Amino acid sequence: MLKxxxxxxxxxxxxxxxxxxxxxxxxxxxxxxxxxxxxxEVHALSGVSxxxxxxxxxxxxxxxxxxxxxxxxxxxxxxxxxxGEYWLNGxxxxxxxxxxxxxxxxxxxxxxxxxxxxxxxxxxxRNVELxxxxxxxxxxxxxxxAKEALARVDLATRMDHKPSELSxxxxxxxxxxxxxxxDPSLLLADEPTGNLDTAxxxxxxxxxxxxxxxxxxxxxxxxxSDVARHAQRVIHIRDGKIDRDEAMR
Amino acid sequence: MATDVQTRVVxxxxxxxxxxxxxxxxxxxxxxxxxxxSHKLRSFLTLLGIVISxxxxxxxxxxxxxxxxxxxxxxxxxxxxxFVLSQMRWTHTSYKDYLEALRHSRxxxxxxxxxxxxxxxxxxxxxxxxxxxxxxxxYGRQVMxxxxxxxxxPGMADIGQTEVAxxxxxxASDILHHxxxxxxxxxxxxxxxxxxxxxxxxxxxxxxxxRVIGAAKAIGTTFGQSQDNFLHIPLTTYEQMxxxxxxxxxxVQARDASQMGTLxxxxxELLRVRRHIPYNEKDTFAINTSEELMExxxxxxxxxxxxxxxxxxxxxxxxxxxxxxxxxxxxxxxxHEIGIRKSLGARRRDILMQFLIESIAMAGAGGAVxxxxxxxxxxxxxxxxxxxxxxxxxxxxxxxxxxxAGLFFGIYPASKAARLDPIEALRREG
Lengths: 249, 430
Known about the structure:
By secondary structure, chain A is of the alpha/beta class.
């Protein structure tokens, strides 16, 4: 049934793989996400449209239940919209299969989570290597790139430590190194400072600023305005719709 | 729809990402061993079924293998290219079969041996022997009990049924003169002549003195029974002093293996003619070969092996189910980890592979422990009970089988893990 709805709004076929020349990285058009709870239908997102350009630093803000997590899952290619088009780096991701989504997540997106989501059994280095393992990077290159990514977040000296042996800020930096190791087109952070104290949170935000200046495109999902203040642009979500889209700097 | 996908793959210039299988294998193997090490009791219980079934399989194969070699060399070894003519077959399929054979057969007479010796063309060696057990053999005050007394012809040594250690074997002249001489086994040498040379001394069987002319090389034991407690005397002497009409076994050695069949047929034909057996009636004697004895033996061990397969299968299935259970628990425990891996780009098949390898590694570890245990048990069996030796194939089969059980029973948990929705999986706390 959901499938039918997707096919009801077909994209112009020739446009599906058009590589945008205008520097647009994300193009969301009329995104809907509907969950059926028994008889009733709940619209987590009802018609969200926006664009993110290459090199942007965007914050998505909203209270809990506003649909910002759902939006993050769509942006992060963990899920597909019920209706609407989601273009990422010239690909119409909203019609991709599970298999293809996994590929996109690996290649185009670097996740940074609130709870870090590191593998507890593996060392920092192994954690950072993981995305490279899933795209078949040869071992020598993998090691080199993982070390390089750890150096970029000033953790070159702690790479043989397990997450439990690292501080919260260090863990988040490992997670950021992991997100960067594949040179993704988008760094997607979900409440990156939520589990950190203020000082460490500021460190992480400073790191984001640095990465942004280095040319990375960053989308941060947060409910803290202190975090959103670092972005160039804030998209406010309320009740599954874009409430306000303001430029900060 | 299919063309859609194709276009997408081509025009999207999508690299087919592939995970390095070797890396997954190593990682999954490490995780499996780590899990096993950190929960020792649980691991023991988990792998018990696999261990038992692997051990059972290998030990049974080891014992059967050992016994096969043993029987081939000790029991069913009639000598190179040798067959034996005797009254009855040495093996019977049933008791009824045995009674039937008993009714229809007749003993082999010394005159029949003479006939074969003179008229059978193209044999290498031929010997005849008849035997009985005598309660006592004496030398001075030394007594040997339950000795096998064999009336033999010189050919028995030529065929290789017995080997001369020193002195000589029974000669044609001994046969001709019904000499009171004997050729003794190693047990008699040790018991009656400790530390002395037996040659030339006289030993007494039922009060009759026999002069020792030679001694045999030690043979050893078969199933705990000494094979060296024997005394060979000339067949003619045996007939004269002990059994007037002995029931002979005639040992015939062919020049080479290819002539065995022809020689058997010739001997059979000669005996049938001699005994006036009509063409449409069965032989009243039997021809025994090593192959035939081994065949009977293989039938016996085959059924032993088949029944053990049942036990192995049951334990293997139990072991597999336990592993499946543990793997299911492991998948549930690691939802979060699976979510992380999926968010980083792991595809279904990557996750599937990881858990399958883990399951195989776990079962394989059980199999390896089973192999080690099997070697220990086999060693004990060899020391305490019967011959046994572990064949390499048993080890390979044991490991392959346990690995296969791991693979088969890992499919369900692994596919469950692979099918997880990344968002759901990430939501679970790790």
